[in-house]
Amino acid sequence: MPSRPRTAAVAEMTDPPIEQITTRDGVSLLVRPIEAADKEALRHGFEHLSPESRYRRFLAPIKELTRHDLRYFTEVDHRDHEALVAVAPSAEPVAVARYVRLRERPEAADVAVTVADEWQGRGVGTALLERLARRAITAGIIRFVGVCLAANEDMIELLRDLGPAVTRRHAGGSVIEVEVELPRGDHPALASRAPRAVARAGTAAEDV
């Protein structure tokens, strides 16, 4: 069977139905792809992250997002670079899960999850990451790779929830690289279910 034209695949990635998720404590959030119009909301969300949450994202004490950062984070192609946003009933984005395909390994992607401090521990990051994994598989990505502090068990557990084949490699200092093969088909990690893990950690330079 001939493969679909790339334009058709991209259209499918950029125009999905908006999904609804429910936090552990019963709050309904909408999930959608990030948009260029989200720049100000992203900047505002970053400003309200605690210093600890910022450090977990950047592995450095970043004070602000530049205009270049905001363009990079919001003007994505939804295939090689994708980001999903969880939006609260107030219309405020409260979490972002993102992958960026690795140039040297096109079957793999760097992954990051960021959750606003007051929404951490409520299962939002897990729900976003599961949906991001589905979209990554559609784009031909079969592995997620994250870089995080070795003590950041939240991020490691978040990736472990996707699949059991988690590989850890020392990346220098207190930093490790964590790699997981994405599940396929009817794997429980991609099935609809209540979110489980705490989502506090990011890996790449991140957003909310």
Short synopsis of the structure:
The chain has 208 residues and is α+β, with helices and mostly antiparallel strands. It has helices spanning 6-14, 39-47, 51-58, 67-74, 124-138, 153-160; strands at 19-22, 28-33, 81-87, 93-102, 105-115, 143-149, 166-172, 175-181.
What does this structure look like?
Helix 2 (39-47) packs across helix 4. By secondary structure, the chain is α+β, with helices and mostly antiparallel strands. It contains six helices and eight strands. Residues 1-14 and 191-206 have low confidence and may be disordered. It has a single domain, classed as Aminopeptidase (3-Layer(aba) Sandwich), CATH 3.40.630.30. The longest helix has 15 residues, at 124-138. The protein has an eight-stranded mixed β-sheet with strand order 1-2-3-4-5-6-8-7, sandwiched between helices. Helices cover 27% and strands 28% of the residues. Helix 5 (124-138) links the parallel strand 5 and strand 6.
Ordered list of secondary-structure elements with their pairings:
Blueprint: H1 6-14, E1 19-22, E2 28-33, H2 39-47, H3 51-58, H4 67-74, E3 81-87, E4 93-102, E5 105-115, H5 124-138, E6 143-149, H6 153-160, E7 166-172, E8 175-181
Parallel strand pairs: 5-6
Antiparallel strand pairs: 1-2, 2-3, 3-4, 4-5, 6-8, 7-8
Helix pairs in contact: 2-4
Shape: globular
- Unreliable runs, pLDDT <50, ≥5 residues? 1-14, 191-206
Share of residues in helices: 25-40%
Nearest-integer average pLDDT = 81
Number of domains: 1
| Beta-strand content estimate | 25-35%
The radius of gyration is: 16 Å
Q: Give the name of the CATH superfamily.
A: Gcn5-related N-acetyltransferase (GNAT)
Largest sheet: 8 strands, mixed
Q: Assign the CATH class.
A: Alpha Beta
Proper CATH architecture? 3-Layer(aba) Sandwich
| Class by alpha and beta content | alpha+beta
Strands, total number: 8
